[in-house]
Structures are given as structure tokens and as C-alpha cells.
């Protein structure tokens, strides 16, 4: 069959990449074209993303693809959620997008709840309360008296900003828009009620478009700069990275439109651990509210019922802290040290709010242990082991609640994304949850991005077909649960911790 090439520009909080997908109608081949680091830049007292450089790296990825003589059928951009840029008159980018870990949102949840009840926001959006949701970032801008909102014509989410820079088109792709906490999944529209309660300008929220639809074509200036012979279509994939990752879960059991509840869950593992199930419609009730589960938009009308768990951020930020002090340990080194440390030392609640921001992570972990009457981890390896065991126990906590919410039994955990390469964490997840872990594919986000471009181009007919292609094209490693007794004991201690 004819092979078609698609380019995914996939940006994560730690790194970005240009991935070329070659699809022959049956299998997908994946090639890394370009990889580059990503991270925050502090200017004055604000933490920004380096948007100009990110855009430049994306153009480099397109240029390298063009040079490799691949003729690309389409390009799609995905990034993390919640962050945005503002566009003013005459296509002016107003300021530079701010990083969601910037402390400007401190106190904004309460400020919002003073104007519209917490319950009401949840009822409308079905979204979990995270301090950095777009809506609280906007409220922070307003509260600070920023001039930007006065002159903004359009708010564009991060992937939509990049799509606009590539094509000139302004639109809001649905999956990423669902992370704003400004979208009502039942009407499928921006919520007038929330905008007016918080006095946010409803008019800056752009038209919504479906994942898989065409955004536009590359601007002539970009085409020329990257050395393409002709312009290329830019498709909006699921532009929220987590939505793209969930698309690429290699499962044969469909859940879309199915009456039976899902018997598998996904864990998109990277800087964050996003653990949840795919459901046919939002689940918004007393239980999802109490446990702060979120209903984010999926593809083809599905909903991603999930929870944000702090994830490998705990390890990444610990590693950076030690490196700054001259103790530069590689990721594999750290994992080996964790593996040879004693099991079941102190435990933490990975989602304690104190772990959210940048800074000295080991000190905050030690402080958490002190506060909860536990000894501090005795070495770097022990501290990493504490993080990984605690993450695995939080996975179990989350799965048990999902089972109760959906009245189902989860039989299989699919770990996708960079974290699926972390064999220690995969094994701990299987052990703590007492369920087999199917790990892979590593590049789930890019794969979901690419295959949704192909689906948008009518080369794939359904989500079930798409997932069968993933399963055929990429290997999966299975981890069977071990050592149940010891993990049950640890779980007893963990339950006490997350209760307090
Ligand atoms: C993962 C992710 C999460 C989102 C967080 C912040 O990369 O997109 O889904 O909650 O980043 O945007």
C-alpha cells in the first residue's frame, strides 16, 4: 500500500520533539527527526516558557524533515495543557506565555469561589481543581491589573498559539480547551456563566474545532524559511498531549459507545502521571467531586475521566536540585540507586501541594516526612525510592476510586509515554495495584498525534482500528504483580498519610 508521512511536533515540559510517522495503512513506523530541551525562563519575578525558541525548534524539525526528502501529508502540534498566549490587534503576540508552575495563581481558587461556588464550577465543567487551570491564570492577570486583558482580541492555548504562528489561523482545539475549566462539556461551548461571574472577557475565547480537523496551511513565509517545495496542511490533532497519549493505548477492547464500563485504565507517564479511564460521557457526581477527578475532552466524543498525579516531576526536580549543588546524577544512575535501597521506608503523598512549584524538592520531601512523623530518607537512592513507591501507591488509591465511580473492575493498567521506560516504576505500579502493567509505547503522544492526523485524512476509520494499528506497530512489555503482602502493609501506612 501507499505510504503516507505525517509530522508530529510534540512538546512536553522537559523536552520537545519532531517525530516523523510513516503509515502504510497497516502499520506505523516512527522516526525521531529532532529533539530539544524545554524548560522555564525566569524574567523579573515571572516564570515563562521560551516561546520564540520553541517555535524556532519546530521550524528546525520541519526543515530537517524537508531535507530528509520526506514529502509530508500533514503536520500536527501538541503540548501540555492549561497554558496560553494572548493575541492583539494586527496579529500581535501580547507578552510571552507564562509557565503554569508560576506562583501567580496562589490564592486564585479562593478568589474565584468568592464569586461563584466551587460546586457550581465543577457542575458546569466537570474539571478537577488545579491551581494552575487557565481560568485561575486569567483571574490572576485580572487581579494584578495586567493591561494584557484590556487589549487582547483572542486567547489561544499553547498548541493553538504554535498553530497560529505556523498558519495564521486562530482556533481552539477541543481537547486542550477542555483543560481551561471554562468549557461546558455538555453544551460543548465556552461557559458564559463562569466568564461573567469572574468578569473574564468571553469574547476572547475563539471558535472551537474538533481534534483531527484541518487548521490551515503553513504560511508562505514559513514554507520558504524551512525550504519546502510547497505548503503543507496543518491538522489539529488532539492538541492536549495527554489526549494524544490516550488515543495511542494499544488495547483491543473498545469503550467508546460501549455499554459496559471499561476494564482497563491508562497511565500517561511523564512529568505528570495521568491515570484514568475512557468513558462515553462526562461523569460528574458527588464522588468525582469529592476525589477531584476530572473530565477532559477525548477524541470522537469520548471523555477522559482521570486524575493528575504529581508524577516523575518529583524525581526530575530532585535531580536538578542535586545537580545544582554539584552532584550530577543521571536518570539511570538514580534508578539503580533507588533499586538497591531498602524497600518501604518513609512514604509521601505525591500530591501534597508543597511539591508543585520549582525549587529544592529533596528538602520539601524531608519536611513532609518530618511533619508526618517519619524518618527522612537516608540517601539520594532512598529518597527516589520513597517517591516511586509513593507514586505506585497513589496509582492504587486512584484505581480503587475509579472502580467505585464506574462500578467496574480494572484488570489491566496501560502505562504509556516516557515513564513506561522506567522499569522500576512499572514493576512497583504492578505490585502496588495487584494488576498487570502493559508498558508502551514510549512515544504514545506523538503516535496519537500522527494517527489522528491520518484519521482526519480518512486513512483510518475508527478509534478501535487506530488502536489496533498501535498494537501491531509497537512492542509492549508486561509486568506481573509480585510481593502482594508487603505492598498491602505499605498501603495501610499510605492510606493514613493521604487521609491526614
Ligand atoms: C501533561 C499535562 C497534563 C496537564 C499538565 C499541565 O503533560 O498536559 O495533562 O494537567 O500537563 O498542563
TrEMBL record:
Keywords: ATP-binding, Disulfide bond, Kinase, Nucleotide-binding, Rhamnose metabolism, Transferase. Residues 266-455 form the Carbohydrate kinase FGGY C-terminal domain. It comes from the Bacteria. It is an enzyme of class 2 (transferase). Pfam families: FGGY_C, FGGY_N. Its EC number is 2.7.1.-. One of its GO terms (molecular function) is transferase activity. Residues 6-247 form the Carbohydrate kinase FGGY N-terminal domain. The keyword Acetylation does not apply. Belongs to the FGGY kinase family. This is Rhamnulokinase.
